[in-house]
Design brief:
By secondary structure, the protein is mostly beta strands. It has one domain. The chain is built from no helices and ten strands. It has a four-stranded antiparallel β-sheet, with no helix packed on it. Strands 3-10-7-4 form a four-stranded antiparallel β-sheet, with no helix packed on it. A two-stranded antiparallel ribbon has the order 8-9. The mean pLDDT is 90.
């Protein structure tokens, strides 16, 4: 059994026991969060009425994505601008896909 869940503007395929990184979620390590379900597949039976299912996950910790360097430059005017970004993620472990 697996489900397609929506996490921070993206959709990911999950099953029980999977560990994945989602956009930062408020909560402490060890607490449980519920992820919104889009689609559920159980032994070949596809259920698009995913409101009947809940996907629960446990927060394992926080991680950071790769460093992204941004450089803006204009020729002959002396304009240079450097900027960096590093996205924050929350690592979660899927603990259950239950029917409500």
């Amino acid at each position: 059994m697996y489900a397609i869940v929506r996490c921070g503007g993206r959709q990911q395929k999950v099953s029980v026991g999977d560990v994945l990184e989602v956009d930062k979620v408020a909560g402490e390590v060890g607490s449980t969060v519920s992820l919104p379900t889009v689609l559920v597949v159980n032994e070949g039976d596809v259920t698009t009425d995913a409101a009947r299912f809940t996907v629960s996950a446990e927060i394992l910790g926080e991680t950071k994505g790769p460093k992204i360097s941004i450089l803006k430059y204009k020729n002959k005017s002396g304009y240079k601008k450097r900027q960096g970004h590093r996205q924050r993620y929350t690592q979660v472990k899927i603990t259950g896909i239950d029917q409500a």
